[in-house]
Design goal:
Layout (H helix, E strand, L loop, with lengths): L15 H6 L6 H33 L9 H8 L1 H13 L14 H24 L11 H35 L4 H15 L1 H5 L9 H25 L4 H18 L9 H4 L4 H23 L1
């Protein structure tokens, strides 16, 4: 599938040659404008709803023992989508007609759902084998996985869409002329710190030093950005594909590696911890080496 052509107001996605060779221009004013909006809207929502908890955690230097701000987090997660709509309609003016991209192929769609499941199951197996955590799924694993796949993933995908419409639907295409890897790294370094207020109030890493939480999550977000970018490009710029990937990862990790279902230090054993980051790093290294080999052949 060919990418949409350039217009006087910008482009919704770069050409394949620009991605492969890192050519083409980046409208940095649009990148900066979107980032300021995405941060400003989300952080304003979270500050209004979570201000006292954030202040208390910063004073303690540690995240709370229990995360209880699900509704507040969900509201803020749609800030990137709102920022992208504002940019597309009023500033960069691509409009919304092509914003979703194509439907992903069945192969890409299945991979977006099953790859996070495989990653989480491998993670749980490693944590169990080296005896640094114990899984307590709470239900027979077969029925639990069926519920998560057919109920949890669709819900998780709808929730993840609020982020993906902004990060991969708007910001990533603006940066892809730099090349896939560079664009993914920049998005990851922007995407990770954006979560700062909700990380401080205990999302993903309860009862941990805040500085360690930020370092580990930034590593995880950068690696996940590489994975999401690969899916976005491979699917022909499909926002649905990366929303499925994001939603599937959240669904399986939130239910199988949270503090209620997998014991151990979340900085190490969770889906956003160091073991998962090592698995992601190995997988992405292999993926990009294979891709580079194919390009040169």
């Amino acid at each position: 599938m060919s990418a949409p052509s350039a217009t006087s107001s910008g482009r919704s996605a770069p050409s394949r040659e620009e991605i492969l060779h890192g050519s083409g221009s980046v409208a940095w004013r649009h990148v900066i404008g979107f980032v300021l909006l995405a941060y400003g809207l989300a952080w304003a929502i979270w500050a209004a709803l979570l201000g006292p908890t954030i202040k208390e955690a910063l004073q303690d230097g540690r995240t709370p023992a229990h995360f209880t701000a699900t509704a507040a987090v969900t509201l803020g997660m749609y800030a990137p989508a709102l920022a992208a709509v504002v940019m597309r309609v009023f500033i960069s003016k691509e409009g919304l007609r092509r914003a979703l991209g194509p439907l992903p192929s069945l192969k890409i769609g299945l991979a977006a759902v099953l790859l996070p499941l495989a990653l989480v199951l491998i993670l749980v197996a490693i944590v169990t084998m080296i005896n640094i955590g114990e899984p307590t799924p709470g239900k027979p694993m077969g029925s639990l996985l069926a519920i998560l796949t057919f109920v949890g993933v669709p819900i998780g995908t709808m929730l993840a869409f609020g982020e993906e419409f902004g990060w991969r639907g708007y910001l990533l295409p603006k940066l892809l002329p730099l090349g896939e890897v560079k664009a993914a790294l920049i998005v990851g370094l922007i995407w990770g710190p954006w979560h700062l207020p909700v990380l401080i109030v205990g999302l993903n890493y309860p009862e941990q030093p805040i500085t360690a939480v930020l370092a580990v999550f930034l590593l995880s977000a950068t690696l996940l950005s590489l994975l999401h970018t690969r899916f976005y490009v491979a699917s022909g710029y499909s926002l649905i594909a990366v929303s499925l990937l994001h939603g599937s990862l959240n669904t399986f990790s939130d239910r199988l590696t949270d503090q209620n279902h997998l014991s151990g230090n979340p900085l190490i054993v969770s889906a956003g911890g160091l073991i998962a980051s090592a698995l992601l790093a190995a997988g992405m290294f292999i993926t990009y080496r294979v891709l580079a080999r194919r390009k040169s052949s």
